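User: I'm writing a tutorial on reading structure tokens. Could you give me a worked example: one chain, its sequence, then its tokens, then a sentence or two explaining what the tokens reveal?
Assistant: Sure. Here is the example chain.
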Amino acid sequence: MYFLYLDDSGSVRNINENNFVIGGISIFENHMHWFIKEMDDLAKQILPQNPHSIEFHASEIFSRRIPPWNGMSKQSAIEVIQAVLSIVSKSYTQNSAFACVVHKKSFLNLDPMNLAFENLCSRFDLKLKRIYAITGESQRGLIVMDKNSYESGLNLLSINFRELGTRWGILRNISEVPYFVDSQASRLVQLADSIAYSVFRYYEAKDLSYLEPILVKFDSEDNKIHGLVHLHNTGSCYCPACLCRL
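And here are its predicted structure tokens:
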């Protein structure tokens, strides 16, 4: 079984931001303990006396407004985010990153959260279909997300996807509706947060420094990136997601 941990970056309602991102990582069930241990070990390096109080929330680390990040230099904070992302980059090949970027002004009549979530559900399902086609192993998928105000809406959307399908077809490999958990209690949701942030920083601020180290981890096949998608109506785009579709 594969678990897709997701979190969002950017704000649907913030008119000063052009983009909204949902991103995260699909993890094979046998590898979950490894990821958690790596995150816990990093927390112990930062705050040995109370590592469980550490929550890796990338935007909070970068802003350095709250403890323990407010005692760090800018460079030290950046290195913490990079250390979290390095866990993604060195992980097993079965695990892959996913993210959907929505240029909000391109879809004024659609909810960016729903649009991104639908896209990622379909792409996660395609990964599971591809695993079956290649290995003959039937794998189910479960989506886990940070608790937020979209919980009830996304649950209903998931039921509709399962029964009626997305615009790309019926989802056949995803079990149940998403599970929503408190990010403070889930290292893997915190990991998803850092992935979403790395994508947001690139598309919103043209900062490639966080995305570049994990770019090879996005779900892909035959040099085509399936796990990273940029939804927009702004004309030609030469970002990594769009370039591989030219």
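What the tokens reveal: Helices lie at 32-46, 58-63, 74-89, 112-135, 151-164, 187-205, 240-243. The radius of gyration is 17 Å.
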